[in-house]
Each structure stands twice: as C-alpha cells, then as structure tokens.
Amino acid sequence: MDNKPKNQPGQEHDYMTTNQGVKINHTDDSLKIGERGPTIMDDHHFREKMMHFDHERIPERVVHARGSAAHGYFQVYESMAPYSKAKFLQDPSKKTPVFVRFSTVVGFKGSADTVRDVRGFATKFYTEEGNYDLVGNNMPVFFIQDAIKFPDLVHSIKPEPDKEIPQAAAAHDSFWDFISLMPESMHMIMWVLSDRGVPRSYSKMEGFGVHTFRFINNEGKSHFIKLHWKPLTDMASLVWDEAQKAAGKDPDFNRRDLWESIEMGNYPEFELCVQMIPEEDEHKFAFDILDATKLWPEELVPLKKVGKMVLDRNPEDFFTETEQVAFHPGHLVSGIDLTNDPLLQGRLFSYLDTQLTRLGGPNFAELPINRPHAKVENNQQDGIMRHHNNHRNAVNYYPNTRADGKPKMAPEDEQGYVHYPQEVSGKKIRGRSEGFKDHYSQATLFYRSMTDIEKKHIVEAAWFELGKVKEMAIRERVVKQFYHIDADMAKQVAEGIGVKPLEQSEVDKIQQEVKAFQENLWSGKENVTDSPSLSMEKVKKADSIKGVKVGILAEKGANVSTVNKLKDWLKEHNADAEVVASQFGVFGDELKVDKSYITTASVLYDSIFIVDGKESIEAMAENGDSIHFVNECYKHCKPIGLIGNASEFLENTSIRKLVQANGEGNWSDKGVVSGKEASDDFFSDYFKALAMQRHWGRSSKNKVPA
Q1: What is the mean pLDDT of the chain?
Q2: 3'-histidyl-3-tyrosine (His-Tyr) cross-link position in this chain (predicted)?
Q3: pLDDT tens figures, 287-308
Q4: Do the beta carbons of residue 613 and residue 559 sit within 8 Å?
Q5: Can you say whether the dihedral through the CA atoms of 237, 238, 240, 244 is positive or negative?
Q6: Of 22-26, 154-158, 598-602, 615-619, which gets the smallest average pLDDT?
Q7: Do 214 and 338 touch, CB atoms closer than 8 A?
Q8: What 3-state class would DSSP assign to 608?
Q9: Catalytic residue at 64?
Q10: pLDDT over 80 at 55, yes or no
Q11: Would you call 183 helix, strand, or coil by DSSP?
C-alpha cells in the first residue's frame, strides 16, 4: 500500500518547502541584519533546517564521528594583556589543562583514519574563568560561507541515502555535483585535494580556528583575530597510494600513532599563534575578513606566537572522555568574542542543539570531561542526567533576597563576560556581502604557492576523485570551475578524466571575467600573489625526526648489534623502530621480532632499514615480501638505510638497475643512505634523510613494481 500523503488539488508543485509546507524562495543565505550583519533569531527556516540536520543521526556525531583525543596543558609565552584580558593568556608560569580531540569529518565511527578528508582539531581549555573551546580543523578555510548550507554540504558528501555508499569518501557523484554548483567551495577543494587531506599523523599537522574572532583587552580595544596551531615538528602527509593501503593494513593508523607516541613519551607539541587586525583595518585587504572561505595570508598579517600546548596523557576511558566530550564555539571566556561570520553564527546554534540529541539532554556540561574546573553556580535545575545542584537549596531564581541575592552578577572588572559593543544596523535580508562573491582568487593563490610535486599531487587527487564520478556532465562542470583557478591545472585534470579541454578562446574569456571582477572589487586593497607559508614543502625545516617510525628488516643471521645501535639512536631522537621479519621468533631470545610481513606493510613506516649479516641478506633476496617491502618504500620516496653488505640486497633489485639506467648517480642523492657500519657519520647522514621525510627526485620511482 502507498502510504505517502496525498496532495490536495492545487498542491502539486516542485518547490522546496519548510516542514510545515511553506514554500521557500531562498535557502543559500541565513537571515541577517544587512549583508555583513549577524544572523538573527527570526530565521525560522534556518533554525528548522539546522535543527532537523543536527538530530538526524544518533548517538554518534553527525560529522566528526571518528575521533581520537589526548589530555595536556597549555602555557602562554608572555602576557597577552595588550590584546586580550583572558586570564589564561596572562601568566607564563601557569599551565592551563586542555583536552584535544582530533577527528575525520565524513566517515562513521568505524571508518578508517587515512581517508582523504578534513581533520577536526578541537581544543577545550579548562581555564580558571570557565571552559574555552577552540573548535577548528587542519585547514584554515571551509567549503561554504553561510551555515544554512551545511546540511546540504554534508548530505552531499555522506553515503548516498538509497544505498549507503560510499563510506568516508568524497569520490562520488553527489558530492562533486554539489561542488560543481558551489563556486565558493573552490578554495577549500584545493586544500582537500592537496597533501593536507591525508596527514601522516595528528602531531604533524596544523590546526586552525577557521573563523574570525575578537581579542578584547581591559581598555575595550578590539582586534579581529584568527587562531592557529603550529606543530613543533615539520608537517608530514601520506601519499595517496599509502593512504589507501594503510586504510586496509591498519585503519587505526593515526589513532594508534597518537596513543603510542604519548605512551612512549614523544609528546605532541603545538604552538598557538594568532593573526591580529585592528578594528579600524577591517576593510584594508583584498578579502573579506568575515568570509570563512578565505584565509589571511601570513605575508600580509604575520603570526604572533602566543604559547605552547603539550599533549602528555592518554584518556583513561574512550567513551567517557573522547566520545562524550562536547565542544561549542560559543564556549568563550572574557577577552575573546565572536564576529558576524555567518558560518560561525550558525555554528553557535548548531553545536548546542546537537548535544541535546547526542548526549541525551541539557546537562551534558556535568559530564566529567565537560565539567569546568572553575566553580559553577546558577539557577538551572532538573533535566536528564542531572548530577549536581548548582543553586542554593530552596532558592532557584534571580533576583532574590532569601539567598542574599546570590548567585549575584559579576562586574566586568571581576571578569564578568561582556560582549564587545559592536554597532549593528541594516535591513533584514537574505544575502551576502559583495566581497564574499570572490570565489577564485585565493584558490589560485593556494595552487600557485605550491611546489611542483605538490601541484602534481593535487592534479592526481582530482583524477582519482573525479574519475569515480559517473556522470560526465558533473566532471565537465568541475573542470570548468578549475579553469577559473588555473588553466594549466584544469587542462591536466580534464585530460586525466576523459573531459575535453576548453577551447583557448573560452579559457581567455573566463580568465578575463575573473580578473575584471577581482580588480573591480579589490582595487587599492592589500593582496599577495604568492604565499610560501601555504606550502608544506617550502616551510620544511628538516631539523627533527621526532615521531618517526622505522621498519627494520632482518632475518636469522642479521647483525643484532646493528639493530640495537639503531634502536638506541632513534630513541635518543624521540623516534621509534620495529623489527620486521618473515615470521616471529626467528631470533629466539636474542632479539624480539615486532611484526611479520603478513601483519604489517611498508606504508606504516616512515623509513626502511636493512640490517647487515650474510645469512639474513641471502634470505631476504629470496623473499618476495622483503623485495616488495623495499620496492614500495622506494616508490613512495621514503628514506632507506643500509649497513654493510645490506647494499648487496638492493644491487639485485629493479630499483638499482633503474637508478643506473637513468643515470641518477649515488644512492645518497635519492635518500638511500649506506655505510660500512653504524658509525656517527652514517647516523648523521641517515638523520638528514629521515628529517627530509620524502625524496621526490626519484625519477625512476614510477617504474618500480610495488
């Protein structure tokens, strides 16, 4: 029987409506006071749309379901009093407890860690004034400008509702159909297709607050700010082939790395940095500072280092801590305030609303992981999961005399929270500022700031993603969007996915239109055409191997002394190693074998080290798993260490023959470090190779079978 409700005569139409059947004439912008004003509570369509989205899945998070977390502390370098009156930013001797949750965005709780995706980077500061949440990502921009589009974005990227596939992936028609029609997403797409979309570990990626907030000092002076987390090690990413294989070999790759690093004492460390723009310079730059699809180039707005965060303790219970922690961008302390960023404005409603379903009621702040370290006292009562009485016996209202007027209001000089007195005026409209309509300039800036290998990875990522799209019209629309960013990139992508490149006359027309629009919009404003800070390769310091994991290949007869020397050396430099052999127990009690070839893979290590020993080398030369292990490591441009006669093993592989055939010179030129013994000189060279992470100059790598 057809149970669908029947339309009454005259009700047949194809228009979008509210859940009450009211036709909608605009669902791309939330209701604001003026084009750049705050979102207002009158917007019943936004609230209904977002409320339904927030509650459509229980109990796991709708997004950021798969997470990993750690405890730690934050310590400011110097008082930030000239800029913010927040107490946790004043005293360099004080450690503020923190809890940080890293996550993927799209996949369900059981999905793999290494999928191409944005990574959540959310920090809860347990300050003396109350909890402050910095809820960000590992990318500084976002797909959309207005929160009202968030349900559409997530619906498009989640598994298609009719068949519930694909899982944790954007490589399908729905997502790219949506993106092809949303030019405001182009900047974020460049970031997602870049190496940032497949981080090697949570400790080797940046974090960003994404939105524009405010610092306010004791004199009431306001600065617009953006907050960043910078890892104290170099950033590192997987290559796409690694990411896919790691998802099968160890779907908990990033989660395991975080846990084991902390257990070993290799604590992840990040510096909190801030970009600041004085209130009077709001319109100085060739981008709208309230647009979440735009970043502030560091070359125009330099970073100021604020303090350091150290993650030094793993959770005791995953569910009660990592799963039940509740973040909210509206959890603020005095000295930090909001702006009219329309994406942020929507999150202020959505995050709070989501917790009601996910955690069962309004008292989620009483769960131990969410409970402030500061005193809580108010007149709220009852409700599901109520554990604490925050009011005074019989008195649960204000004002009162029966409890001597307590809890009383805190004056501003006692850090009573007061919002910045921003002037607001304008008509009540659905719209957006003209400056928000520049969708391509920063996408172009990002792409053209990359090195050649990073550009190559972006193109190859687009080949994979769009190659999975079945409808050719969608592929064509995306490629046309790419022509607005960079014509050469668009042509390469087109050729790789079977789309006919545009005629030069059409390309010229597109670029002329983009240029004319941008020049008209930003004439006389400060801008840059190259930003080296956006490139992971250009900012690499290559001065640390902290967190590196080496796979030591050895069989019976291997030089155990070499293995122990290497392990001790790596430990001194806050790195780690595992012994990999054809099977467990080949060394008896002499040496522990950590993994066999059947239980691990080269993609789970940052480098491979082949130990000397005649019998061991001969056994490896006859073992296809050993050969594949090394071939794959070479193909992924990772360092390889060789001691003594270990070089003989590689002399018989296709790697050496290809290197010689291509005239590529010495092993060391390509990150393959060999030595007669495990000497100080050898370890010095090996350190340099490890610190470089990847050796992209291996022109023969694509000919290596792996």
Answers
A1: 92
A2: 328-351
A3: 999 999 999 999 999 999 999 9
A4: yes
A5: negative
A6: 22-26
A7: yes
A8: strand
A9: yes
A10: no
A11: helix
Q: How far apart are the C-alpha atoms of 66 and 430, rounded to whole Å?
A: 35
Domain 31-366 in CATH 2.40.180.10: yes
pLDDT at 4 > cutoff 50:
no
Per-residue buried b or exposed e for 173-208, using 16+ beta carbons within 10 Å of the residue's own CB = bbbbbbbbebbbbbbbbbbbbbbbbbbbbbbbbbbb
Q: What integer pLDDT is reported at residue 140 of this predicted model?
A: 98
Which part of the chain is CATH 2.40.180.10?
A: 31-366
Q: Is 358 annotated as a binding residue?
A: yes
* pLDDT tens digits along 73-120: 999 999 999 999 999 999 999 999 999 999 999 999 999 999 999 999
With CA atoms as reference, report the closest residue to 91 among 103, 79, 81, 102: 79
* CA–CA distance, 634 with 505 (Å, rounded to integer): 43
Contact 195, 119 (CB under 8 A): no
Per the model's pLDDT, the better-predicted residue between 651 and 467 turns out to be 467
Residue 2 has a pLDDT of: 47
The active-site residue, picked from 45, 131, 137, 439, is 137
Task: Give residue for tokens 């290596």.
Answer: 704
Residue with the larger pLDDT of the pair 393 and 529: 529
Among the listed residues 45, 64, 172, 187, the single catalytic one is 64
Packing angle between helix 487-496 and helix 452-467, nearest 10 degrees? Answer: 40
According to the annotation, is 150 in a ligand binding site? yes
More confident residue, 61 or 2: 61
The span from the CA of 675 to the CA of 186, in Å, is: 48
pLDDT of residue 256: 97
Diameter of the chain measured on Cα atoms: 91
> Mean pLDDT lowest for which of 20-34, 169-183, 571-585?
20-34
Question: CB atoms < 10 A from the CB of 133, how many?
Answer: 21
- Flag whether 101 is marked binding: yes
Task: Quote the strand ranges of 254-341, DSSP E.
Answer: 269-278, 304-313, 336-337
Q: Does the annotation flag 351 for ligand binding?
A: yes
Q: Is 61 flagged in the annotation as binding? A: yes
In the chain, CATH 1.20.1370.20 covers: 441-534
* Residue 137 is a catalytic residue: yes
User: How far apart (Å, rounded) are the C-alpha atoms in residues 197 and 138?
Assistant: 9
User: What confidence tier does 28 reach under pLDDT thresholds 50, 70, 90?
Assistant: confident
In DSSP terms, 208 is beta-bridged to: 137, 228
pTM exceeds 0.70 for this model: yes
In the chain, ranges of CATH 3.40.50.880 domains:
549-703
Q: Is the Cβ–Cβ distance between 475 and 499 less than 8 Å?
A: yes
d(CA 372, CA 387): 14
Side chain identity, residue 489:
M
Q: Are 274 and 215 in contact (CB under 8 A)?
A: yes
- Tell me the CA distances in angstroms from 294 to 35, 359, 414, 443, one per residue in order: 17, 33, 36, 9
CATH tag, 441-534: 1.20.1370.20
For residue 364, pLDDT over 70 is answered with: yes
Q: How far apart are CA 126 and CA 124, in angstroms?
A: 6
**Tokens 């999150």 belong to which residue?**
347
Cβ atoms 315, 68 nearer than 8 A = no
Distance CA 592, CA 582 (A): 13
Enter the CATH code of domain 549-703. Answer: 3.40.50.880
